[in-house]
Amino acid sequence: MAKKQFKAESKRLLDMMINSIYTHKEIFLRELISNASDAIDKLYFRSLTDDSVKLKKKDFFIRLAADKENRTLTVRDNGIGMTKEELEKNLGTIAKSGSLDFKNENETGGKVDVIGQFGVGFYSAFMVASRVTVRSRAFGAQEAWQWESTGAEGYTIEPCDKEDVGTEVILVVKENEGEEHYDEFLDDWRLAGIVKKYSDYIRYPIKMLREKSRAIEGTDKDEEGHYKAPEYETYTEDETLNSMVPIWKRDKKKVKDEEYAQFYKDKFGDYSDPARVIQSKTEGTATFNALLFIPSRTPYNYYTKEYEKGLQLYSSGVLIMEKCADLLPDYFSFVKGLVDSEDLSLNISREMLQHDSQLKLIKTTLERKIKNELAAWLKNDREKYEEFFRNFGLQLKMGCYASYGMNKELLQDLLLFHSAKENKLVTLREYYEAMPEDQKYIYYAAGESTDRLAKLPAAERVLDKGFDILYLTDDVDEFMLQMLRSYGDKEKEKEFRNISADDLGIETDAEKEEVKAKNEENKELFEAMKEALDGKVTEVRLSQRLKSHPVCLSSSGPLSIEMEKVLNSMPAQQEKVKSEKVLELNGEHEVFAALKRLFEAGDKEKLAAYSEILYDQALLIEGLALEDPVAYANNVCKLMV
């Protein structure tokens, strides 16, 4: 039989198809099984209108058979089979799709769900096989045909003997070469694992004879009746490798919570039940099923570069990609689960997915679904939501901050902050609606812990006015609020304001004038203190925010003291940043009276020491490190003698 040449004429094209579309060699089995499933689909669909097809749905199957001695792997189905012309058409042209033609040409009006494109997927077999033989007999045909090829050099087609209808693909598996161990594709445990991973939800049983071991009955006791290690025998069992019915396609009213939990733990390697299950079925522009899970705990590597986000992506129940990152925005990267769509081609590369319009529609729909589920969770089960937020709230905050706040409208009402007045977590909406009429800003304080923030001198005055303060303890918090800028109903939005900021908007005009006059009156004292601090502060002045404390630090520029601390703690921050610090004094405190006495007495040395001590105390209150701990200790000691 003369060898024929592929219409897609060069070996270079075949190599490109194999090496660019498929990342892992094991994919070949998924492709061959999907082709077999499509062939069965065609005959089953025909049986609905053709009485000559004697097979019922329960009669269809796909069978795998590995022969280690002869190094062959056979994938057999009892589907519709192929004529000589169809073998030529489907296997003689790389990227030819018999399945796609069937889907497009069917005119019966029935729903036909074939998986993929025969041509491209079939040629993945050459990743592991040195020779591929296809033996097929079409339904209604009296003769069978054999197609055979060793690669891009060409192929042969000739008659063969085959009693039953259907197709068998026989692969002669390559010999091991270097680090490539092709023997694994002849081991039944490995084949079963590949089926479970990629083809578990093919709707026809995938069968394989497997060798197993069992204890021989009666060999676990000796002649005296004492227990001993039993003898074992090997036996062969015909095993169905796939479960066939995806849990996400079952009626969710008939699926128990325990079943979802077990599926999640088995599929995603978690030992804890999921905190929430989200199931979605969408039809229309983008048709897909989604089964999503929110973990009940934070993965150990979640906030590291090693964590890989993404959902499993299926095409009609066949796994396309283990982690498709393009289905989730970063701020929802904690979500695990899968998406199954009939609109996606099985033969699609990672690069092609990035530009797939259906994938973008699915992503947008999922994003809206997850947001709505989280909002409902917050409203209906506050305790569970707060537990979720402790695990993954930081990710939502980072989502608000990222891309210059582009996603703030989507995420801001999902955030929780610690309320100083309520001593519990509140939403921005709850804070906003509880604000007194005369409150100008949404106040916040940023630091290491709520306990430390509650002791800040600047917090005392704000709380005394009856205004609440949001305590921020995550590094990203203040940066995020700067992206949000404000919150509230249109035309009544309130800006966020740090309690250490320049103007808190809580003073009356009379109080402002009074403090302005006192600052002018003590101008020379403050200049002397500023000079003694030698550039550590941009200004020394009387405070309008202090009540019982003698001193505090505030900032007069866009960079707050806490932001300075956060930025300078980052490993990548080579050049240290510096906020514009202001040393504020309580004009009603006896410490200020002592400073005035020293200045009037002309004791510049002690005034400088007092200034240093007050500045260092203010640093400690803010949770900042002392610039010179030894100098601070010496100044304190001088006061003791």
Automatic annotation (TrEMBL):
Highest taxon listed in the record's lineage: Bacteria
Binding-site list for ATP: 31, 35, 77, 82, 90, 96-98, 117-122, 167, 350
GO MF annotations in UniProt: ATP binding; ATP hydrolysis activity; ATP-dependent protein folding chaperone; unfolded protein binding
Domain spans labelled Histidine kinase/HSP90-like ATPase: 24-177
Keywords annotated in UniProt: ATP-binding, Chaperone, Cytoplasm, Nucleotide-binding, Stress response
Pfam families named among the record's database cross-references: HATPase_c_3, HSP90
Region of interest: A: 1-350
InterPro entries: HATPase_C_sf (IPR036890), HATPase_dom (IPR003594), Heat_shock_protein_90_CS (IPR019805), HSP90_C (IPR037196), Hsp90_fam (IPR001404), Hsp90_N (IPR020575), Ribosomal_Su5_D2-typ_SF (IPR020568)
Subcellular location: Cytoplasm
Keyword Cytoplasm tagged: yes
PROSITE patterns cross-referenced by the UniProt entry: HSP90
Region annotation C: where it falls in the sequence: 566-641
Main location: cytoplasm
Record carries keyword Heme: no
Subunit structure: Homodimer.
Name this protein carries in UniProt: Chaperone protein HtpG
